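#dry-run=false #mode=assembly
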Amino acid sequence: MIDLGFLDPQALNDWMVTQRWFASKTRDVASIEIVDNVTLRAESPVLALCLVEARFPAGTHENYQVPLALRPADEGWDERVIFSDDEWTVYDALADPATGRELLHRMRANTELQSGQDEFIFRWAPNAAAGLGGTVDVRPVGVEQSNSSIVFGEELILKAFRRIEPGVNPELELLRFLSAHDFPHIAALVGWYEVEGRQIDATLGILQEFLAGFRDGWELALEELGTDPERLLDKLQALGGVIGELHTVLGSDSSDPAFAPDEPSMEALPILSADVDEQIERAFLDLPETEATAPIRGRGQDVREKVAALSHISAGGKVIRTHGDLHLGQTMLGDRGWIVLDFEGEPARPLPQRRLKRSPLRDVAGMLRSFSYVTAGARLLRGVEAPADWEARARERFLEGYYDTVDGSLLPPGRQAIDQLLAVFELEKAVYELRYELNNRPDWVAIPVDGIVRLLEDEE
Amino acid sequence: MAAGTRNDPGHWFEAQPLWFKTAVFYEIHTRAFFDANGDGSGDFRGLTEKLDYLQWLGVDCIWLLPFYRSPLRDGGYDIADFFQIQPDYGTVDDVRDFIEAAHQRGIRVIADMVMNHTSSDHPWFVEARSSPDNPKRDWYVWSDTVHRYEEARIIFTDTETSNWTWDDQAGAYYWHRFFSHQPDLNFDNPEVQEAMLEVLRFWLDLGMDGFRLDAVPYLYEREGTSGENLPETHGYLKRVRAEIEANYPDRVLLAEANQWPADVVEYFGDGDECHMAFHFPVMPRMFMAVRREEAAPIYEILAQTPDIPDNCQWGLFLRNHDELTLEMVTDEERDYMYSEYAKDPRMKINVGIRRRLAPLLDAGRAEIELMHAILFSLPGSPVLYYGDEIMMGDNVYLGDRDGVRTPMQWTSDRNGGFSRADFAQLYAPPLMDPVYGFQAVNVEAQMRTPYSLLRWLRRFISLRKEHPVFGLGAYEPLKPSNTRVFAHIRTYEGDVMLCVHNLARSAQAVELDLSAYEGFSPVEMFGRSRFPRIGELPYLLTLAPRGFYWFQLVKDESP
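#status=ok
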């Protein structure tokens, strides 16, 4: 353990709260404290894997993984600097290629590091080739998401989870399950590291195959909407097939309690309908009066009644582990066809909720909403107008591909029940989008508003 | 070790020895909750199936009534084998699966544990009575005369006439503080002390997060005493705690000691005995306050409640699986409670009233919300009783306390969705009366009704959980001149909460002295509406009949 006592807590505080991955940007922070650290490297750059607790004035707290790097101040390091004094520069270790190399090395060697009562465990996936990654060319990925990533030699990518919660991260859980069941449309799991500690047991990072030469599904769709919307439809039908196959595999193993497909409980639909109802109530409570919101203003009650009516079906099909946050941005297309990424679920939900088994149609609804987004996105971002019926056809073709490969017993019986349940999930998603866009991208508010209006007017 | 394979409760929780101080507890009678195998009786697989519901509701910890092998002459509090479960509840493996599934959802589980006595069917007692020379003889308390420990009161006054019962086979009297089929174990015997620790270890090793310790005041007997709260009893509980401290982090011991607060605090020791204890006397006083439309009974009992160590917590409840006990009230108060809440003599049992929350409050929605608000605002952890969240009723025609232990009402379908068995096969008939029957009162209907009590309570639970102040904060009564209003302030770290409750059936105005918070603004917690800033003058609020407000007091930057 490195003595980080010289690090000004205020500097760490000021840096953390401005990071994209810091979950509670809107709340005051009472204190930020390093609760444990383990040394990854003792000579310059000194690397310490830190667990940090952020406490809030009400007495609640959140945990974060914050790897810190230290170099002598005279080296003049200037990337992602958190603090510096005459002696040391302290900075975000994930900005330093040395960190990636250390983590990779430890995963490959299947090592364990002890720090007090905490054990940091590094693992290489059993069927991953040992030579992967080499030692060259480590680069942090520029865009910071809710996690931080490092790419190794265009072969491997490490995703370090920032906010950590007790239990297995669903991403690790799903990747291990899908690898074990030979599902080909994922970036292969190569390694991971985790902590079993006095304070928390949690997954800290995941190492996967880097998809060199693959294209991001969202970017690809934006572009092809302008160049070749027909060919894009073929691709989306293939994507439907991949998602259907994904669900079939996720619902195929009754021997593993974490994945065994279950009958939906008697409460499944009432809970869904109550949850969506609460989200609608909240979204409409402080709906701003703008041009974009005009079509739904004052219609909160209609939306709530619509959800209530749609969810009056007998629950059928199965509940299974799902992707949890599926949209075009979570896919990539390359020479192996479509690849599905990011199985950690919606980061804003607590881990026990993200691990819940749900109807696979919830993923499907997420993807269908994404087609609505990409149609509008092409207009907003590229000035490209999609063909008038393109979105409707994209939905049809995707579903065609999906129904071809999905195990039908996972879905409610009959097309009408499927459509109704899909509509509930689409409404749920659109209401979530509405709140998100109102807070983050006012220009995009019209997209969920259109979606809500369309679902309201749908007479089925 | 690979992630996801440990059965250690720590795996799905952060280490937090004081988790119970901010938890919402939910008490379940396994037999009554859900019947997964269709034999007419609830079971552990049924509990597992209903975890979605409990997770949705937002409870942090489930307390299970006794589920051990038992002849069921006292609702399972008469244990015949501590290491087996009631066969119609399933298997010990089902219990393990249930605990693991609950942990994965972020829910902990504690079990009722009866240390004081066993069933007379327990093999220990069967051996003990067989001969004076049997090695188990001294595991129980025997006497040749009934004239020992005569100062110990009789608890089950409706059924028992003495704490001694003659056993022909043993040729001696045996001691029992409860029913005569429940002989008391002899805790003076070191083998009994060790055997009980062995029982606790077994369930803790299975993943159980702790115990609700039934009837703890009575473990030891001493001549010339009431046989309650004896130093030896505290000594043994401290030994149990030390064992848990050493080997089982983040577990909880919740004492059931139906005693005055000054005696109950002894069960906390110096923070080295029980983590929690129920606060019995506060509960009847809340019912008194709401019926008299006066806050005084609540202020008074809280004023009489001593401080407790920082690592301890009160368990607070409105109703539970027992009668609404009136042991900890004066005779006059008891007469008042009986006259107000037990108009039908069938509603009385022992020293108490065997009714559920909703019928006690005449199904008054405002009253039920008000009582929950007061409960949630008090220093302690609330313990909810299954079915009360949907305003289930009771059945006074069932014997003993079975009337408040009827099947959970899930849907309006057959048997209230509790079981697929034939009606005649059910352990008890579900309620079918027009007001509280499952056709009218059930989980599904209330989930689908936006303004149902269930939906309201779920929001309230999640609101309370966002503010640890309610579990951890200081309590400061405000005592305004309007005696119909119960108002107090809770503070913890940066959080200040003002809770104002109108106990009257009529609208009330109240002036509160908030001078200590001049410059703060009250923000109402359900709707986040900002109220006028607190100034120098008394703060005026008006409250609807049985209405309440909870405010967060927020320091105003810009006046």
